[in-house]
Amino acid sequence: MLQLKNIAKYHSNGIQKNWVLKDISTTIFEGEFVSIMGPSGAGKSTLLNIIGMLEEPSGGEYYFLDEPVHKLSEKKRTDLYKHYIGFVFQQYHLIDELTVYENLETPLLYKKVSSSERKSRVADILDRFNMVAKKDLFPNQLSGGQQQLVGIARALIGQPKLILADEPTGNLQSAQADEIMQIFKKLNEEEKVSIIQVTHSEKNAAYAERVIHLLDGHVEREERFTR
Amino acid sequence: MPRLLSTSLRPLQSLFAFQQLLNPDQKDDLLKVDNVVRPGSFQTYLHLANPSIQASVLNNIPKLMRRGKISESEIKSHKFVLSALTDLHMGESTSGEARGISNVYIFAGVALLIILLALLNYMSLTTARATERAREVGVRKALGAFRGELIGQFYGESVLVTCLSFALGFGLAFLLRPIFFDRLDLQIDAAFMLSPIVVLPMLGLMLACIVLAGAYPSLVLSAFRPVEVLKGRFLKSSKGGIQIRQSITVFQFVASIVLVIAALVAQQQLSYLQSRKLGMNKDQIMMMTPSAEGYHAFRNAVSQLNGIEKTGSASLALFKDYNSIFFVTSPINKKEVPLHTLGVDAGLIDMLGLTWKIPPADLKNTAGWQGKLVLNALAAKDLGVTSLAQANEVGSILGQPMVGVLNDFYFSEMSLNQKTPLAMSIVGEDFKGTLYLQLSKTADVQASMAAIGKQYKKHCPDKPFEYFFLDESFDTLFKAEDRMAKLFGIFTGLAIFISCLGLFGLAAYATARRAKEIGIRKVLGATVGNVMSLLSTEFLRPVLLAILIASPIAWYLMEQWLKKFTYRIEVEWWIFAAAGLSVIVLALLTVSIQSLRTALANPVTAIKNE
């Protein structure tokens, strides 16, 4: 699915280089479910953003579906992640001014999906997440767990091969968090969607097959669970 | 000879512009200076005990004339008009059309509108900046500031800003005054700028500005609840504020678009007035008034000169002097018609290229026209004349037979502005009025002028060589309007600039407010183009609304304005389209900087900002 070779990221203030990531190399295969763990400031989110092509690494090589991302133009990169990657955020990041329906439709608008196709895809996903009744509500009329469901539905509507989730359950109570994790697991197992999540919680991390532990910008250790 | 008076006593803004003052008893001396005394150039000023007795004064004039043993028919042929001196001062002419005063009101109105736009900008931008100030207010409140103290603080700021800008404005006005007055051809004493009539209203305006500028921001900002603000919830809770700012933007653009349309219509009307067909030829023609003694010798001499095509003579200088008017009751339709009068010779009719509507019986025998009358088509129409026989019927009343009826042509400032019936008496070779010389198109103007000047010195040595070109006299009539139009254009530009500043502020605020949303959209795959069009549509909405509101307002105002003109254009749809389109383009350019910055921003930073 994707391969990172010696990925590095630093912020420079002119004199000093502030290393966020150093020498990260790993391969993530299609259909894998990976958790990234580590204390605050370890570089988890930055790594996820680099994988999601929202940030550019300062050095190293990044291959996504055998495309050399580090050499691609911005337009090509946008095309790539638009089609293969879905994002889920801790703060859900739904658009407040749009209804649930419109929020779900937005990624399809930017992928230039035809109107009839959009309608059927949004209807499908609303059905799948049992949210048909809520399609005309605005995000602030939903509970946190429901908002995150919309967030996941929105990530899935583009039919991505990879879901990147940045602490998806960080703002949720444990029952809701479990529900979300179950959905991720099901997606991974039944639809073979690859998932990379950043998390603080050991319990949530254990839903994955592999956990990458980051410390101060480098891979401290990796562990594998056998299911 | 008349005695000369020093003119230094005359205030520059006085209506009475003179170079010499003469006692009426010295009228005979004046006649020696000028061989033509133009009738009607003496106006009588009456000092009324109170303005309400105007009507009775007018009624009494015929009685006074009777007492002066003036014949009844003579009394009937005169009409008297009273105009208040203050109206004359404000630009009203004795014929009752008031153009000067309406210009004064228009410019005062536009100036006030511009101040209002600037005030609205101040309010809108201060409250938009409230996002930054909100935290400050929250902290101050948390530290125990009362609302009154905060209101005082914000008012203090508006006082400072307003006073500074008034000081700057007054200073600039004082510095730029010479250029400004020069452009407008105004003469105003420097002392007038500092007189209470100017300074007191300015102070009043400043106070009003302070109160208005401070009111909205201080009330809105001081009302923030500290807990919400400190928690950062301010942005979401200010929907009402957004609407107010949007309405302000709409209003500003309504004002700008109305001004743009008005400027375009005014420009159209002016160019229409200047470029319409005059019905006569005004090119290559110069006018001068040689002294009576040398008149004929001079005319004969110059008509022999190379480069002089034709010569002619008239009782006055066209587009410069005023015609006198007498009233005639038509024997045909019994209508009373005010006839403007002009004496011309046959040479001038030929030179001006005037054309006949009812041609004379003998076109060639111009000598036979002498001592007869010619009407213009308007006069013929008003008098009910359709044939030469009918014309002669009118002529019999006037004591002169008719030659024919000429097609209409413009001959004076008044005839350019309203339909003016004209009766011309054809004068003979012995007439000594204003001399018209037509230079041939191929003539070397400088050489011809030198030759004419030489002849003039020879034949009229005691009168300075003064001359005017007919086309320049015509253009001069529009100079004031042209200047007004230019100034109006500048004001319009200023109003648009201020409105765009307002929109710029609104755009800055709105993009800041939507930064997170834009970030999310970009993560979801929106391109820079998507984001630009999203933001541009948002900003275009108030502008489009403004165009819809402004168009009928501007149409109505300009219809009212155009009603004053007898000769006028129709307001055409493309003017609205052009005004709307240009404002849209300007608005888009204004917001594009903000939109582009937001569209190009890294979504990660926008999303992280919680």
Number of helices of chain B: 22
- Mind telling me the C-alpha Rg of chain B? 34 Å
Low-confidence stretches of chain B are 1-7, 35-40, 94-98
Task: Provide the number of structural domains of chain A.
Answer: 1
Largest sheet of chain A: 6 strands, mixed
Q: What's the structural domain tally of chain B?
A: 3
Give the uncertain stretches of chain A in residue-range form.
none
List SSEs of chain A in N-to-C order: EEEHEEHEHHHEHEHEE
Give the overall form of chain A.
Answer: globular
Greatest interface and its residue counts?
A-B, 21 and 17 residues
Instruction: Please list the strands of the largest sheet of chain A in the order they lie side by side.
Output: 6-7-8-3-9-10
Any idea what the radius of gyration of chain A is? 18 Å
Average of the residue pLDDT scores of chain A: 89
Task: Note down, in words, how this protein is organized.
The complex is a heterodimer of chains A (227) and B (610). By secondary structure, chain A is an alpha/beta fold. Chain A has a single domain, classed as Rossmann fold (3-Layer(aba) Sandwich). Chain A contains 7 helices and 10 strands. The longest helix of chain A is centred in the last third of the chain and has 18 residues, at 174-191. The model of chain A has no long low-confidence stretch (mean pLDDT 89). Chain B has 610 residues and is of the alpha+beta class. Chain B folds into 3 domains: 99-118 and 239-280 and 476-610, no CATH class; 129-237, no CATH class; 285-475, no CATH class. Chain B is built from 22 helices and 10 strands. Chain B has helices at residues 27-33, 54-67, 72-76, 85-89, 100-128, 130-142, 147-184, 190-193, 196-222, 226-230, 239-275, 295-303, 346-351, 377-383, 388-398, 413-417, 445-459, 470-476, 479-523, 528-562, 573-600, 603-608, and strands spanning 285-288, 308-314, 325-329, 336-344, 356-358, 373-376, 402-406, 422-426, 434-439, 467-469. A 6-stranded mixed sheet of chain B has the order 3-4-8-6-7-5. A 4-stranded antiparallel sheet of chain B has the order 2-9-1-10. Mean pLDDT of chain B is 81; it is low at 1-7, 35-40 and 94-98. Classes of the chains: A alpha/beta (227), B alpha+beta (610). At the A-B interface, helix 2 and helix 3 of A face helix 19 and helix 22 of B.
